[in-house]
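Inputs:
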Amino acid sequence: MAAPATAVARAAELRATIEEHNHRYHVLDAPSVPDAEYDRLVRELEAIEAEHPDLVTPESPTQRVGARPDSGFATVRHALPMLSLANAFEDPDAGDDDRARYREVADFVRRIEEALDLRDPAFSVEPKLDGLAISLRYEDGRFVQGATRGDGETGEDVTANLRTIRALPLKLRGSDWPRVLEVRGEVYMPKAAFEAWNAAALAAGERLMANPRNGAAGSLRQIDPAVTARRPLAFFAYSVGLVERGELPDTHSATLARLRDWGFPVSAETDVARGFDGLVAYFRRIGSRRDALPFDIDGVVYKLDRFDQQRVMGFVSRAPRWAIAHKFPALEESTTVLDIEVQIGRTGAVTPVARLAPVQVAGVTVTNATLHNEDQIARLDVRVGDSVVVRRAGDVIPEVVRVVVERRPPHAVPWRMPGQCPVCGAQLQREEGQAAWRCTGGLSCAAQRKEAIRHFASRRAMDIEGLGERFIEALTDFGFVETIADLYRLTLDDFLAMKRRAEEREGVVPETVKQGKIATRWAENLLEAIDRSRRTTLARFLFALGIPQVGETTAKTLAHWIGRLEYVRRMPAAVLRALPDIGAEVAESIAAFFAQPGNQSVVQGLLDAGVAPADEHPPAPELRDRLDLGTLLSQLPVDKLGGKSAQRLAQSYGTLEALLQAGPTGWTGAGLSAQGAANLEQWLADPLQRQSLLQADVSMRELLDAAPAQAERGAAPLHGQTWVLTGTLASMGRDEAKAKLEALGAKVSGSVSKKTHALVAGESAGSKLDDARKHGVQVLDEAALLALLQSHGG
DNA sequence: GCACCTCGAGTTCC
DNA sequence: CTCGAGGTGC
């Protein structure tokens, strides 16, 4: 049966595309699409050719592996061809069943079990390095020739360059080696070396390497071996080709051990696994350590361990039936930018987001990726319609890595930040020296209102369970809620009405009686959750208000030092500035928030609605050590009135009244320079400024008067220590562990530095472990943490 | 004035 | 988790 025209056309198209990628990858060392996409194209072509064998031509890319070597190096014929392995990928649509998810691996094992008539055969298993495959020829124990893999039959003679790799033995150890030995392995660039290289190249303004594999390939193809010698290349051996006048062991794993004896580096991750379950267990084990390995891998390789069994299985075309490469889900994929939209955050910050054609990356479907800010878009030059490479690396959040410029549609235009907020229409502006654009709409912008409510209800703030994004959207859109204070006025009927309208809008069918009961129950729960939130802590309440620059930590600082909302909301910036970690900027932001009439009425509305931060306590006694008239004076924007002279003035007069009474002549007598006295007098001449100083003084004294004379609590066991948490703990959540450590007096911060007292590392801890090692910080595991908490009665 | 620490804010998917 | 920027100590 002749192939249909569509198949003919598609096959031709695929061949052209694959050849182009081959050329870019193998000859130019400059791939333009991720490997996963290349693999997919080849598989599609293979599928078409399998269905329509008449379409197979000798020139088809499926009929050879790799590309013809470029000029510059002599061609070498491998004594035994270098194999290519069949690839097994995960089926992302399969359920939890391993045999369905790794169907190709299961089939591979089953074929072997059937052909050999045995169960759970032994496999030699190893990580699949993402480097450059090479073949090394040793005669009488000496390295005589090395070649790239090329198309598997012939490669390029890169002997001189390979000699520069220190991991590669030029002379074999021991004496029991065959007269002629071909060793196969992978040249690669360790991740750390790659990063160091690029950091240096960046500093020197030289060209960067795209990734470690490209770095290795480019380095090996240098005409001048002296250049290669400077590149940080390494090598692992993984199999043997031709052997003349010598014996090898009976198994692959024993052969690897022999290679090690002869002086070849062999990956420490190699192992022996039995049957399908053993293979999958190994796959998972290596996968979980993927980021921690010092080299890039793109999967693992399974080889039937016994050579006699390998011989029974034989080959299909050029791929062995006794080995398979099990690939990890791709970390990089390419897709199309459908649109670039902007999102408005709680603070009005404008974040551009790329809407993407859905694509599978590392096991999940990605449809959005942040583009951070205007500068980032300009750097990448992302345009609507572009093909982009999306990555989901060690972290979870997808990012756009680069644009595939060759595929840019002809009329794509550079992206431009809109002038107005897409939600409220207010002007967008970018402040001097800031990366972010902001919507100037404030709380008249629906997006900012919604985000403010979402933040207020969030777990770390007021913790109103059940008040998710969808309902906040509906509550604000239908006018049930304008500000966070309105939440506490909502009734059962409001919730039911809101739900009905939301369902109407979404086109959901009218509710049955039974659904009505469920809805009532839902509304009751929500009402109860809102009611519960009335009793909260001052720190949570302050955090929930969403004061710019005030996050969880600063809210805790305010709550701890000042103690009562009444004081916090009335305290001028000059006083707030006396608190640790609160500087001019943050202090102004807090004072400005509470001075703004709209915010005042919201806060008052919350209090009137019965919201009561519960654990109010007097201001911290230590305030007396950091806050006095001197510190207040030293913050005045008056020239020649510094910290020292401010202290002298304060000491001479004791009170602000006395100081004001004395006037400039008295001040000079108290140690202020004539110029300073004149400046101060001039500043005080403005009645508004004079008034604000008097008010600040009153507030400060009120605060100090309320503070107990001395600390009443004993020293906490971990007082003054900074702890850091990383990884996942089995027995408790991170928040819980943080709270328990804080209860013992420790400060829990997010990053490791030399000031850190200890790092608690849970499962799959990441880069913070390295930081701890670098700074010589002690590392505790979960058991040690539990023991510590126990010993302090936690 | 600079280097180093922290904190705040924003982000994706299930 | 990362980036940007505020706070602090040298």
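The radius of gyration of chain A is 35 Å. Flag for discussion at group meeting.
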